[in-house]
């Protein structure tokens, strides 16, 4: 009993080459076997469709929960002294709350970036395209405006 295909034709029969049967013409071998699949010209004419089989990455609950809790605590620490004016310590508590809120926002942005999300208007990570200067300057103006309003409000407490 033989374990695999071997060249056992010793009596002058058809000899196999080391690669397999020799082709005669048009993809048909001397044994009448045809190649499977489309020809080279059919391959170039067919449009390729790429389908992503992996699911889209999402932020998990264990990633979001500490960020949301810190943001809520920080915003409450920032809002209560500003709303109810708790005396001399209110400005310190408000600035600490603002700091905690900003830390939570930074952590949220880093987690979102790690998953692959980007800010609206900015190119995707690794795309090679540069961000539009108007979008970047718009984000900078919004950020600086929020910082100025927060500092101005805390400074008015004194």
From TrEMBL:
Annotated segments matching region Disordered: 1-40
Residues passing through the membrane, by range: 64-84, 90-112, 133-155
Regions of compositional bias (Basic and acidic residues) in chain numbering: 1-13
Top-rank taxon, per record: Bacteria
Keyword Membrane: yes
Keyword entries, A-Z: Membrane, Transmembrane, Transmembrane helix
Protein name (record): Transmembrane protein
UniProt organism field: Streptomyces venezuelae
């Amino acid at each position: 009993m033989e374990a695999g295909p071997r060249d056992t034709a010793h009596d002058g029969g058809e000899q196999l080459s080391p690669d397999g049967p020799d082709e005669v013409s048009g993809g048909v071998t001397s044994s009448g076997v045809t190649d499977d699949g489309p020809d080279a010209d059919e391959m170039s004419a067919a449009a390729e469709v790429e389908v992503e089989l992996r699911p889209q990455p999402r932020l998990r609950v264990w990633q979001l929960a500490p960020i949301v809790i810190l943001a809520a605590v920080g915003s409450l620490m920032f809002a209560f002294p500003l709303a109810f004016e708790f005396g001399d310590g209110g400005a310190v508590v408000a600035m600490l709350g603002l700091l905690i809120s900003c830390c939570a926002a930074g952590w949220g942005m880093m987690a979102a970036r790690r998953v692959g999300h980007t800010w609206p208007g900015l190119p995707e990570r690794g795309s090679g395209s540069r961000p539009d200067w108007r979008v970047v300057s718009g984000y900078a103006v919004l950020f600086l405006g929020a910082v100025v309003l927060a500092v101005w409000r805390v400074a008015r407490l004194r």
